[in-house]
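Hi R.,

As promised, here are both runs. First protein below:
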Amino acid sequence: MCEIHRRILLLLHTLLVLCVQLRHVEGGAVPLTSENLDMTLASNELVFINFYAEWCRFSNILAPIFDEAADAVNKEFPDAGRVVMGKVDCDKENSVATRFHITKYPTLKVIRNGQPMKREYRGQRSVEAFSEFVRKQMEDPIKEFHTLKDLEHLDSKKRIIIGYFDRRDMPEYNNFRRVATNMKEDCQFHVGFGDSVSQMHPPGHPIVVFRPDVALSNENDETYTGKMNNFDEMNIWVQEKCVPLVREITFENAEELTEEGLPFLILFHATDDTDIIKDFKTIVETQLISEKQNINFLVADGKRFAHPLHHLGKSQSDLPLIAIDSFRHMYLFDNVKDMYIPGKLKQFLEDLYSGKLHREFHYGPETTPEENEIKKSTQPPESTFKKLAPSKNRYTLLRDEL
């Protein structure tokens, strides 16, 4: 019975792939519904979806452009199971729109190996731009090395996943490749095959290893001990290793981080001050891990982010320093050296939650209610990082704006 069930599922999968291919033959983006969506996501490496509404003027402007781009992409990637450009009519497929938290139209989302990317597509909306975006997404993120000596020259400031395999045509390597496409923004991926890596693993038993950013952290190498033929298990493990508790904020990922909606606890550091980064990461990992659902822990190059420093009344000569950006105001940690005192950073966060930071900025510590009434106050510096969030000057419509 199990074999019959397996064959039926395989047949259904084949039929759905054929249906998607027929849609491609008809031209334009593939209409996705609650009936064909899950199988489409599960059977393709990349699905690029236009969530639209018929009543939306901007959706109607985008539709022919997206359809033309779908035809161009289908010509460039004709093999089944690689790329699908799809479209969802959100009024007809309300459950699909709700599932993907669609509130404005059109919204463009990318799903890789069944998993939505953190960031929506917000690039140029043209046939050429869509095609180039898909082309970039489909580039192989894995760099092959040919001798173990090559691994001595990897970037010590990057988090790295290394695979040791007998051959490229192994199903285990295909899982590794799929994981790499999902996590390529967060880790570097390297792989070796055959004789060049035979001393690193037993024949027929590939190995995957995590190498931390040793220049910026005190973490150690770690070998994956899960099942090599289980994509989900490997993907979860790699995600845990590639997305650390303390992340670096850059202009490239700031939008994504602000969209997470959590206040920032930021260490601003001099460009070459790797020691303070290591210490900050260790303190957060050992003392503040219980706060990870409430706070985003970040490090920022004070030279690149000079504007927030200026907002705090500081300059590069004052580095390193620690601040909270609550997305309303910014608050400065009194003395960066105090982070080495157990409980000090934890109390800084508690004072944010309780409103004490805001009150003390206005009135200073240990003042009476009467003094509070008399004392004139100024506002804490406004958040600067909220300005890096997605622009509200979008050409798309919210349902509530009708």
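And here is the second one, sequence first, then its structure tokens:
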Amino acid sequence: MAQQNQTCHYNESMGFFYNNIGADDKWDKTQLILVQVVGSLFCCFILVSNAMVIAAVITNKRFHYPFYYLLANLAASDFLAGIAYVYLMFNTGEVSRQLTVKEYFIRQGLLDISLSASLSNLLVIALERYISVMNWKVHSNLTKRRVTLLIVLVWAISILMGAVPSLGWNCICNLSDCSQLAPIFSRSYLVFWSASNLVVFLVMVAIYMRIYTYVKKKTSVLMPHTSGSINRKRTPIKLIKTVMVVLGAFVICWTPGLVVLLLDGLNCKSCNVMKLKRWLLLLAVLNSVMNPCIYSYKDEEMWTTFKNLMRCIGNGTRRQRSTKANARPLSSGHDTGTSHLPPEEIKNDDQHILKT
């Protein structure tokens, strides 16, 4: 039996691994279509709204600061999450059993990379906010070069984390170690993945608690002496509030999923993790939907830039339509005298002209 478990199964379809764990994850056809339609609408919103966040940061010079560059990078990770959710929705249910091992690694890798990128971005933003607030400045002194290096580092770590299972930390050669939620992922990997992410959550919460207590103490000291100038210092507090709301939404939406992954990795037989799988995915999708709404609601300048971008898109569409209308060939009877004449009458006119 041990020798059979050590045999590698790279050429098997995912149905083999689902049967190995005894997974009964069948979707009702109507339910699956409903999920795909509603999910597609959500994903379209995720893609468009996060693309607008990135465009807003690029086009508005008031956003050309480290905090907003990192915020745009967070939007880019949500954009990738939207692509990952689309790929997942149309490769789930019975279709997931027909996937090859490579295709399943791609499906899960996209999700893992987007989650790692979001988490890494939030951690970097937390550190940037900590530096700026401790110096009592609106924005930190990070140069564009350092911000670029941080963004590259975020994506390098995220891609590595997403590729770890395909690089060997899987159960393809050890079927007894396979998890239920991810049939070719080792339970030990799920423990590492979920535990490390939960630790990062705690670190970020600790950083923002430190920032909050510092700002509150600093404000209480300065308020009696500089009540007029303290109003001008409310911008860093506003940015902190924005990030704290984003972080809070991220923790609320992802913590249940990470806890369930941890329980699956610990081989909890009585936890019935498969029943929670769909609801946890819905929470993850909602998080990517919420982030652009938070940016625009908490930041008036961002909302104004959004409206300007939508006006530009609307004006550009109108111009394109008018250009196409003007470029159409003239075909009306008012433009050419013989447009509405039948072919026989045109021939008779030509013959009459030749005779004369």
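A quick note on the second one: The mean pLDDT is 81. Let me know what you think.

Best,
J.
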